[in-house]
Design brief:
33% helix, single chain, eight-stranded mixed β-sheet, 12 strands
Length: 239
């Protein structure tokens, strides 16, 4: 394995939605991780052009909330430029929605309501699933979801997975871009910060942190193992 230092630029929106289980695999491959708070960033970001990998993480706002969060326009332009350059980029949850918008797809409030909690992915019916994505489709595996918005599949994207509630849970563009609506990066310990950070939303939706914690006790260990395999195969492919 190469130990050459690589540069991963991470755009985050709330501190507790971090790299999670992706942090160690990146560092193990010699990545220097630079985290930038997207809400206070000065776009355009020069390092967005030169970094080896860009990761855009989740957050509790909508892609279309430009009037309340004007930085979103600069962030989308930054992602669009990265896509045009065909350089490695990963978007998770809000990050995937931003990537879809940057690629010209519609992002909108989910008609089936918020999808919060643990549920399995369903293999996309069209095309062949890449081997590197297969660990997340293992029988009996549930992944973590926390989103209220959804998106149309970008033109030319490869559809990878869906759920009963929302069909577009994962897509790839070429061999350089990956959008994941769900959260493969979460760990049981890391989710404790989510329960606090999203306490108001949980209260409004009548969801109890204790129930999410109990479900994490059932599913998080298997997800961590599957995600490790997935991250390893995906990173080997793109860097």
């Amino acid at each position: 394995m190469s130990t050459r230092e690589r540069h991963a630029l991470v755009l985050n929106h709330v501190p507790f939605e971090d790299l999670g289980s992706l942090d160690a695999p990146l560092r193990g491959r010699g990545f220097r991780i630079e985290t930038v708070d997207a809400s206070t960033a000065q776009f355009p970001l020069l390092q967005a052009e030169s970094c080896d990998l860009m990761v855009v993480l989740g957050g509790p706002i909508g892609v279309y909330d430009y009037s309340d969060y004007p930085f979103l326009e600069g962030e989308i332009r930054c992602i669009r430029q990265r896509l045009a350059a065909r350089k490695p980029i990963l978007g998770i949850c809000l990050g995937a929605q931003l990537m879809a918008a940057a690629a010209g797809a519609r992002v909108f409030p989910g008609p089936n309501g918020a999808e919060i909690g643990w549920a399995p992915l369903q293999r996309a019916t069209e095309g062949k699933t890449p081997a590197w994505f297969a660990p997340l489709l293992a029988p009996g595996l549930s992944v973590f979801h926390w989103h209220g918005d959804t998106f149309d599949l970008p033109s030319g994207a490869l559809h990878l997975a869906g759920t009963d509630a929302y069909p577009h849970q994962a897509f790839a563009i070429g061999d350089f871009a990956l959008g994941l609506q769900f959260h493969p990066e979460v760990t049981a310990a890391g989710l404790e910060r989510w329960y606090v950070g999203h306490a108001c939303e949980l209260h409004e939706r009548g969801i109890h942190a204790a129930d999410l914690r109990a479900a994490a006790g059932v599913h998080a260990r298997a997800l961590k193992k599957a995600a490790a395999d997935f991250w390893s195969q995906w990173l080997d492919r793109i860097v």
